[in-house]
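Apologies for my clumsy wording, but can you show me some protein sequence, whichever is easiest, together with the matching structure tokens, please?
=====
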Amino acid sequence: MFSLEITFKGESPSTERIFIRRPLATIGSEESSHVIVDEMKSLGYSLMISRDLGRKFTLTPIGGSDSSVAPSFLDGVYEGEASVDLGPIAFRFVALDSDLMIRDTEAPDRAGARILRQAATGQSPIFPALVVTTTPKTVVSFSPDQPVLVGRSRQCSLRLDNASVSARHARIGFEAGQFWVEDLGSSNGTFVNQQQIAGRVNVDPGAQISFGKEVVAQGVVSAEQAADVIAGVKLSSPKALSKERKYPLLLSLSESARPARMVLKSGSDISIGRDPSSDMWLGAPHVSRKHCKVHVSKTGLVRVTDCSTNGTGYDGGMLRRDQYADSSDKPLVLDFGGGLTVALCFSEKDEQAFNAAQGAATAFKVAALDGGARGAGKGRPRARRTTAWLQVPPEILGQAAGAPQGRGGVRQLFARLSWQGRIVLAVAALGITGCLALVVSVLVMGFSW
């Protein structure tokens, strides 16, 4: 959880670096300290470091047994790293992300490559988080993709020094808005709201999770919940989730879509396109075989990524190949052209609005989604040239989607083109007409001869 750099300032200065793999640790000269530094004996006090949300941590000086007074200036909350000069020695603390740890049964070489890639592309997780409410309070933020192992073993992300806690006591994760806890055959048991559990069970944020007889923790998903738990305020019990998940879902009113309704599960990947093997099949010739894909993360974030030739329209604009749009609660309409739309709904209200608009591309208000559209493959060279100059702006495209259908779809095709595209179409039509006239003239003159 921490990297500690110790600089000794004696006659022969030297520096040592150690790794503290626990969210709570004490540094001092006593045998009971987690990190023993003999040079701190002359100071008469120790330091306690504990994790907070994200990369925040707290430093607390602790007075020695000889009634010495610890300096108050060291007491405080730090972000990311902190340097402390104590005279004969100096410390530099660096908070390490809990998701940048070697996983169980993971090979070191694979772990190194994964951690380097993850550290370069991702941000430190803040929520969900686990708050240990027993004194001293500790907070562990973690990624839903990497559950927290709880116990006394050094392999545990949440390492607890308590006699009632087993070496590998329990495992805690987060999925689809709920925490889950799994007892790993501990000696003194794992309890949820004072009820002992067996195996894996789902728990709501704020529920009390007890490891053994003395250590209590609570899961939180927001800064407000974390502040209330730390302050000792009991969280209101959230509404129980129904056994059958109904949202988010993909919904289409077009007869060309099969299936027309699809509930999205956390961790799932859905393909949409003309290919018969697609999870949602769109039977229209202008739809690409693999048009786009939809991914649902374990935290409920839905990501729509374009894989097509001509792009995918949505409420925030137009997605091009390898671009994506994220949403966790705002509905949007995916426009595939030709009046073919698919809605991403997060509630019954969203579904009713889409049905009331008869599947129009403007069923939901145009709103910028969090994160917008970003290029997922910026570093990859592209040889294909796009036809963006032929595309009509999204606001005009939305109006065209609600226009009456023309015979053979010609009127709708013309409505989808920008003014440059219309000029090209007109020139092409004139050229074809001229060629036909020339052929007819030659044939007529040939017969007259």
About this structure: The chain has a mean pLDDT of 82. The CA atoms of residues 414 and 422 lie 7 Å apart. The first strand starts at residue 2 and ends at 8.
